[in-house]
Amino acid sequence: xxxxxxxxxxxxxxxxxxxxxxxxxxxxxxxxxxxxxxxxxxxxxxxxxxxxxxxxxxxxxxxxxxxxxxxxxxxxxxxxxxxxxxxxxxxxxxxxxxxxxxxxxxxxxxxxxxxxxxxxxxxxxxxxxxxxxxxxxxxxxxxxxxxxxxxxxxxxxxxxxxxxxxxxxxxxxxxxxxxxxxxxxxxxxxxxxxxxxxxxxxxxxxxxxxxxxxxxxxxxxxxxxxxxxxxxxxxxxxxxxxxxxxxxxxxxxxxxxxxxxxxxxxxxxxxxxxxxxxxxxxxxxxxx
Amino acid sequence: xxxxxxxxxxxxxxxxxxxxxxxxxxxxxxxxxxxxxxxxxxxxxxxxxxxxxxxxxxxxxxxxxxxxxxxxxxxxxxxxxxxxxxxxxxxxxxxxxxxxxxxxxxxxxxxxxxxxxxxxxxxxxxxxxxxxxxxxxxxxxxxxxxxxxxxxxxxxxxxxxxxxxxxxxxxxxxxxxxxxxxxxxxxxxxxxxxxxxxxxxxxxxxxxxxxxxxxxxxxxxxxxxxxxxxxxxxxxxxxxxxxxxxxxxxxxxxxx
Lengths: 288, 256
Known about the structure:
The structure holds two protein chains of two kinds. Chain A is 76% helix and 0% strand. Chain A is globular. In chain B, the strands form two sheets. In chain B, strands 5-6-7-3-8-9 form a six-stranded mixed beta sheet, with helices on both faces. A three-stranded antiparallel beta sheet of chain B has the order 2-1-4, with helices on one face. Chain B contains seven helices and nine strands. In chain B, strand 6, helix 5 and strand 7 form a beta-alpha-beta unit. The longest helix of chain B is centred in the middle third of the chain and has 18 residues. By secondary structure, chain B is of the alpha/beta class. At the A-B interface, helix 9 and helix 10 of A face loops of B.
């Protein structure tokens, strides 16, 4: 561009500015804009914040009977009490360990199966059908068999969570794998990538957006599966704490359990989204 | 593989390719000498992309026979820059090349993109992206450079700059080049030899023999342009109508 002498532009610019004042260009820019704009830092907290406000107002005005749902501040005071007794953090640690272990196994299985089924024809024939069948069987229906096979210990719990978790990762990773641009495959062939290099530089990064979407679903379902597992036959964990509280009609403790689940779900989803922003920084999208 | 053999760089014999949908090649012969710049013209469906894809060895879906001998190192430039969006510019240049980050930097500097090594592809303009693609081809030190309408998607000004850049780079690195284009002027400007493909066969094989003096040069260019337009079935009404591609060109005619 430097090849063009600057003098060429001079007179034209002056002619434009000396004309009568134009409407500010911003006016048009706003009209044309279709994207939602720049996101605020803690914007995701607005919805939960509004819910909390609504709940507080209902409780403070006496519209909400504390026997049905205790006010939010009771949750805080009860939580502080439970922490002082050591019950909350002990149970939380057990629950978090179960969910994370199950998640780790489930995600590893989901990704491995998706890669095999997406990259080899035979693998696709064998695995995809099986996975679709598994999808039709609700996780609750598996519990009796799981107990029969694995007992009622931690193995059964982690296995059940992993079983619930692997599907979203599998389906989203598999879809993303099949949607890899054929032009990128051609490029990989012309620059003579080995199979391993193709996997590393084209397949894995290209599949990452789909995988992360699956991971968000999986994280949520790991907590869901955890609730089911812990309320059935556990002697520790947040679910156990809630079940115990239910037997003694301690609505405040039940509420604390509920809030902890909500915070865990919200927090882990936020963590995955943060990971997404970091790993997919090369993307230019609407919702950045 | 023709490692060690110097001549020709590319040899094609009785090449036959057919697709269910795309163009066909019917027994094509072609030689390209080392360092020779060959432009390949033809209407849509004449088989020029088919030939290029056969030489790039990415025509897995094609049926066919024949022999192809290629130099050990070849590189391809596509119409789109085809950069991997998740890799920074330098990593794109070095895709599939081990180590040699300095070579990658040099190649980027050669195409005028020094200092942009860490940029993401989407941060570059279309012309800049295509220059990265050029650097990616150069870093492989190809003996054969295949280019499939590499400037077709660029604006006219950028295209002029890219022509100059490609000429300079080809001068320095001296690979054999096969450039598919639909732009007759581009072919005359860049190539040593122009081929016209018609129905999967070579309809013409013309050396671009431009005299040294300016006037003779212009006259010969005009002659060649007119000849090529006639071969391509385009009525040469004005010298600027060289964008035409395909037989369906009807100037001022009825369009359905």
